[in-house]
Amino acid sequence: MTRPLENKVALVTGASRGIGAAIAKKLAEDGATVAITYGASKDKADAVAKDIEAAGGQAIVIHGDANKPETMQAVADEVVKKFGRIDILVNNAGIMEGAASIGDVPMDALDRTININVKSLFILTQAVVKVMPDKGRIINLSSVLGERAVIPGISIYNTSKFAVNGMTRSWALDLGPRSITVNSILPGPIDTDMGNPDAAAFTAMKRLGKPEEVAALAAFLASPAASYISGAEITVDGGLNA
């Protein structure tokens, strides 16, 4: 039986843990060859690659410091050098820090958040679309907080995720003539080190989501079955925004 992503090459950023790791494993399970990037956790990234290989998949690990957006071109170049193409780009790398009311937001946290959550995503995508075949897939990991600013004190994170959704919509228009789809996934409270266990109470399902539940949507959006879905912002939030 042919798997839906057979012979595809996927690049997943920030895939050493959490949602990124789950997406990398699911894309590999569905047949893709996967390149995963990490910022600081090489051991964890290597462990993800080993899990993929143990399950019969193929993966490589690439260092990519998303706080240095100018290095993103080299990440794309390395994947193309190894595999010749990038069919699927999952922009997952992101941070949440500098929580404070607007009058007290530290400028270094603003710069770092915009570098990682916005500029690196933009520059990497710009590099990838130049080599991505027609009918490719771009999946941006945003947040429900990029749709509704429901929590005070995290304006720089919210701003960065609103920007991600803006890029998704704009790129869907830019790349539509090439049948490249661009979509945002907006996770709600997920059981990762960035998740808040107390937030489970605000969901309709009264639990945290699993990284694998986000990965299932990413794999669908990467597949041929999602060829007419583009410019969408899809929540995975257990009914938080119902």
From TrEMBL:
GO terms for molecular function: 3-oxoacyl-[acyl-carrier-protein] reductase (NADPH) activity. It comes from the Bacteria. The keyword Oxidoreductase applies. Its EC number is 1.1.1.100. The keyword Plastid does not apply. Belongs to the short-chain dehydrogenases/reductases (SDR) family. This is 3-oxoacyl-[acyl-carrier protein] reductase.
